[in-house]
Amino acid sequence: MAISFRVNYPIAIALLSFSASAAELETERFIINIESRCAEGEVSCNQMTYHGTSKATGNSIMLEGSSWHTLCADGDTP
User: Fold this and answer.
1) What pTM does this model have?
2) How far apart are CA 73 and CA 36, in angstroms?
3) Within 10 Å of residue 67's Cβ, how many Cβ atoms?
4) What's the pLDDT band for 12 if we cut at 50, 70, 90?
5) What is the pLDDT of residues 46-70, one digit of tens each?
6) How far is Cα 56 from Cα 37, in angstroms, rounded to an integer?
7) Residues in contact with 68: Cβ distance below 8 Å, sequence separation at least 6, in sequence order
């Protein structure tokens, strides 16, 4: 199932790999929480949650999905 949404203002976010953890990013305009509900040590996670809240309006969005990863230049290291 594909989920799409429209944002009326640009947001730039760098996503990092998380294992059984959560992280918060606070910018001038947004508070963003990214949580992984996967076991520690898993390279890919199909249980990721993104929750973003606008500081200006208080509007928020919650998305669920999976992490992506690519291999390094050596073709072996994730």
Assistant:
1) 0.59
2) 26
3) 19
4) very low
5) 999 999 999 999 999 999 999 887 8
6) 29
7) 44
Using the structure block, give the residue that is written with the tokens 């050596």: 74
Contact between residue 18 and residue 34 where contact means Cβ atoms under 8 Å apart: yes
Spell out the domain ranges in the chain: 30-73
Query: How many C-beta neighbours within 10 Å does residue 45 have?
Result: 20
Rounded distance between C-alpha atoms, residue 24 and residue 31, angstroms: 7
**Sheet of strand 30-36, all strands in order from the earlier edge strand to the far edge:** 22-26, 30-36, 48-54, 60-65
Q: Are residues 66 and 45 in contact, defined by beta-carbon separation less than 8 angstroms?
A: yes
Radius of gyration of the chain (CA): 14
Question: First CA to last CA across the chain, in angstroms?
Answer: 26
Return d(Cα 5, Cα 11) in angstroms, integer. 13
Picking from 10, 13, 60, 15, the residue whose alpha carbon sits closest to that of residue 36 is 15
